[in-house]
């Protein structure tokens, strides 16, 4: 009887600790706080605020006149370094790799994504910076938030290979069920991201019910995937759902309130200062044999940051700069192997801009600083759908206009896009993915992602 009571107390303490950690409350002190609550739990006059570990600011914030509002979840960490990274990791347990057929299917998926990542990296796009996986699996060492964001933008294209694998009769029914659940989970996450990061999104002080619906859809899909694709290896987190043991998935429930309080999520993006410690290290040469060392370092970092921001548009200071990335790639017309037509024939990705008239334009350098714009033609008569993206036969049309500088191209661009191609039977078909998170639909219009009934209902 005594042993049963002790076991019951331990179970209750574990549940309290887990709950506190889900709330991101007290961090490493959650265990001690739970134990303190448990010791006084039978006392009818017990007040949780009397606990020694209960934060003082929560006890006295009314006395200080401080109004507490919820702390905004930063999109870089919550969505991309957190959840997107976790979803990539979950794809590793889609297949039973002890079976040769499924091991080969996994290898085909990873090899396709790696090849595409290498080709996309060659485009040097600032809005889609791809970095290849490390190792034989989907390992993301050295990735930054921008790489996870880019992978998220292209994830339906990358994982389109899963549709081919579903047609393989040698793949087990359990694996196929897990693949369908994974597709639903990934699609629901893309629906949430594209809705919140839409360039035309208008924030309001009212709660956006669209965000709340997408969050619930995604969390439900996570649970459904977890129930349909459990491959336990060793003890580890046996029995604990991945959306509980990994990134802060439940933090998504606060997103609608965050947007209502602080505005659109892109305005909270802090990825531009990722890896900022390298800027601090540059100033660490200051002698540190006195108490003013840290103050001097901080002052120099802030001064440099201020002048960099102040002069960011100064053409004379930055005239000699050569940035490694841009919003689109301008192709050489004289080099036959690097012409967009040849690249499309080989299934390589290309990029372009959308002009004010909505035309998809590919840019080619004519010489003397002149750039010609060629319209991208898309034949939908041989098109097909794959993982909720529409693919059609792409070709480069005739020249439609001339501009005299890259600055003029950027000035006239309403949006930018990538042409991502893959082979269907013996023909390369292409899909259009825009910087604004829009994709080209079957009717030829560029819109935010439209989910298919087959994916959402796992048909």
Shape: globular
Query: Segments where pLDDT lies below 50 for 5+ residues?
Result: 232-237
* Global Rg: 26 Å
What sequence of helices (H) and strands (E) makes up the elements?
A: HHHHHHHHHHHHHEHEEEEHEEEEH
Report the strand count: 9
Q: Structural class of the helices, strands and pairings? A: alpha+beta
Oligomer: single chain
Number of helices: 16
First CA to last CA: what distance? 51 Å
The percentage of residues in β strands lies in 15-25%
As for the number of domains, it is 4
Largest sheet: 7 strands, mixed
Q: Whole-number average pLDDT?
A: 82
DSSP helix fraction: 40-55%
Q: Can you tell me about this structure?
A:
The chain is of the alpha+beta class and 459 residues long. The protein has four domains: 2-64, no CATH class; 75-268, no CATH class; 275-310; 331-456, no CATH class. It contains 16 helices and nine strands. The protein has helices at 2-22, 30-39, 56-64, 75-90, 100-121, 145-158, 161-166, 173-196, 209-228, 242-245, 255-262, 277-282, 293-310, 340-345, 406-411, 453-456; strands spanning 331-332, 350-354, 360-367, 370-386, 389-403, 415-424, 427-434, 438-440, 446-448. Strand 3 (360-367) and strand 4 form a beta hairpin. Helix 4 (75-90) packs across helix 6 (145-158), helix 6 packs across helix 8 (173-196) and helix 8 runs antiparallel to helix 9 (209-228). The chain starts with a helix and ends with a helix.
């Amino acid at each position: 009887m005594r042993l049963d009571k002790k076991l019951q107390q331990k179970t209750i303490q574990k549940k309290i600790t887990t709950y506190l950690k889900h709330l991101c409350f007290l961090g490493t002190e959650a265990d001690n706080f739970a134990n303190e609550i448990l010791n006084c739990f039978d006392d009818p006059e017990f007040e949780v605020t009397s606990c020694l570990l209960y934060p003082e600011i929560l006890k006295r914030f009314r006395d200080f006149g401080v109004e507490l509002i919820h702390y905004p979840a930063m999109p870089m960490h919550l969505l991309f370094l957190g959840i997107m990274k976790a979803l990539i990791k979950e794809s590793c347990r889609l297949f039973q790799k002890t079976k040769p057929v499924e091991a080969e299917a996994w290898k085909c998926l990873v090899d396709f994504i790696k090849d595409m990542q290498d080709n996309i990296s060659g485009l040097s796009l600032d809005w889609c910076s791809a970095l290849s996986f490390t190792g034989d699996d989907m390992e993301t060492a050295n990735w930054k938030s921008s790489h996870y964001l880019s992978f998220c933008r292209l994830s339906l294209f990358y994982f389109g290979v899963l549709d081919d694998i579903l047609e393989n009769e040698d793949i087990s029914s359990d694996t196929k069920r897990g693949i369908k659940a994974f597709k639903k989970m990934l699609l629901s996450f893309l629906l949430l991201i594209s809705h919140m990061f839409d360039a035309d999104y208008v924030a309001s002080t009212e709660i956006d019910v669209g965000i709340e619906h997408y969050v619930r859809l995604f969390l439900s899909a996570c649970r459904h995937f977890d129930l349909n694709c459990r491959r336990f290896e060793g003890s580890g987190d046996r029995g604990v759902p991945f959306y509980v043991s990994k990134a802060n998935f439940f933090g998504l429930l606060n997103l609608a309130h965050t947007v209502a309080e602080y505005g659109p999520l892109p305005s909270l993006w802090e990825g531009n200062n990722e890896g900022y410690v390298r800027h601090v290290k540059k100033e660490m040469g200051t002698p540190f044999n006195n108490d003013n060392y840290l103050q001097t370092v901080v002052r120099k970092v802030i001064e440099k940051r201020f002048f960099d921001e102040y002069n960011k548009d100064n053409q004379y200071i930055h005239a000699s700069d050569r940035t490694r990335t841009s919003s689109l790639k301008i192709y050489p017309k004289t080099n036959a192997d690097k012409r967009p037509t040849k690249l499309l024939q080989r299934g390589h990705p290309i990029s372009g801009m959308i002009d004010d008239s909505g035309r998809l334009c590919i840019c080619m350098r004519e010489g003397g600083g002149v750039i010609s714009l060629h319209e991208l033609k898309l034949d939908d008569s041989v098109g097909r759908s794959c993982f909720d993206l529409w693919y059609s036969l792409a070709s480069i049309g005739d020249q439609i206009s001339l501009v005299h500088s890259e600055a003029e191209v950027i000035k006239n661009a309403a949006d930018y896009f990538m042409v991502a191609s893959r082979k269907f039977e013996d023909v390369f078909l292409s899909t259009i993915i825009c910087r604004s998170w829009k994709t080209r639909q079957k009717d030829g219009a560029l819109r935010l992602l439209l989910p298919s009934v087959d994916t959402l209902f796992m048909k």
